[in-house]
Amino acid sequence: xxxxxxxxxxxxxxxxxxxxxxxxxxxxxxxTTGHQLVASYxxxxxxxxQAKIIALYRPGADEIDRAGxxxxxxxxxFARAINTxxxxxxxxxxxIKAIGNHGQTIRHRPTDKxxxxxxxxxxxxxxxxxxxxxxxKFRDKDIALGGQGAPLVPAYHQxxxxxxxxxVCVVNIGGISxxxxxxxxxxxxxxxxxxGPGNALLDDWYxxxxxxxxxxxxxxxxxxxxxxxxxxLLAAMLADNYFSLAAPKSTGREYFHLNWLTDYLAPxxxxxxxxxxxxxxxxxxxLTCQSIATTINSxxxxxxxxxxxxxxxxxxxMNMLTTLCDQHLVTTAxxxxxxxxxxxxxxxxxxxxxxxxxxxxxxxxxxxASRATTLGLAFYP
Length: 381
Ligand SMILES: Nc1ncnc2c1ncn2[C@@H]1O[C@H](COP(=O)(O)OP(=O)(O)O)[C@@H](O)[C@H]1O
Ligand SMILES: [Mg+2]
Fold this sequence. Notes:
Layout lengths: L9 E7 L5 E8 L6 E9 L2 H9 L7 H26 L7 E14 L6 E5 L2 H8 L3 E3 L3 H5 L9 H8 L5 E7 L2 E7 L8 E7 L2 H10 L21 H8 L2 H4 L13 H13 L6 H23 L3 E6 L6 H10 L4 E4 L10 H14 L7 H4 L9 E3 L2
Parallel strand pairs: 1-4, 4-6, 7-10, 10-11
Antiparallel strand pairs: 1-2, 2-3, 4-5, 6-12, 7-8, 8-9
Adenosine-5'-diphosphate binds next to helix 6.
């Protein structure tokens, strides 16, 4: 039995998504049956750290050194966020049972001959710098069992959002978008997969055209709103093979990146149909919304749709998506009492709790793994 033992049932979930915008923390109390979200915290990355992360999404020179360095650098930034957060909450490390650390995904290749997924932000360093037990490496065992290692959020979505009277879709619009489908008849046909790009291409294209601008995102879609959707570009992108693949499927920024966009854009730029950079921005937003809406429509004729993740904070995107989902009831996690930005971090607090309590974290029907299993590995201070 490890010497490090804590009496409370407080867990911290730590999420750093593919947008590489920053670190989301959720402090969760599992001593009640209701799983109380006590508080949340956000620490943005500085531009240099963000650039270091994004540079590792795609193969390049000197990767081992760059990834090794970033592994430790991120652990330090994670620890700074955790230590500030617990102090802010008038807690000490002794009050926290464990941190559930998703880490930062820098490569996700679940369908290669030797499938793998790689999250960095050193778990052992984080445990030592915070003096708190860390549960990490949540995706590895699901991959080892033949699964995609993703998405891991559906088991928890099912526990808190399933509704006997209505189909429910939970859609997380991060860098990549993922959906959990909870059919009203019961729990057996839960499905979940990545629908495709969320904010990633929007962020990439915005930055390419605003290199001297301090903003790194198209805040509230203000720039996108000056453009017009280019229907031929939208149709061409929607015809991409990923959107018609059957689930289980998951994807990442090694697939949906600027070169992917350029492949669709180049033929149009050569043709008569001129389009501006802002037209491309709004068309990328339409791609995100249309691919999500098509997915929802294929799953249910009338569902409660709960949107979370950074995309839920973008009013233009939410407007477009709501219009495309007019036969469904669209709402956000925030309006259900869990901040849009905290839900994923909350899930990783739960996955740490699940590890400690021998609760299975994956849904084999969702990930494609050969069986359900507890997920993660423990790292002690
Ligand atoms: N007010 C907003 N206007 C436009 N985009 C937003 C806004 N708030 C958040 N975003 C988008 O959400 C992204 C962050 O979402 P997040 O859920 O943290 O993604 P990830 O989990 O991939 O890190 C930002 O990079 C940005 O694209
Ligand atoms: Mg984020």
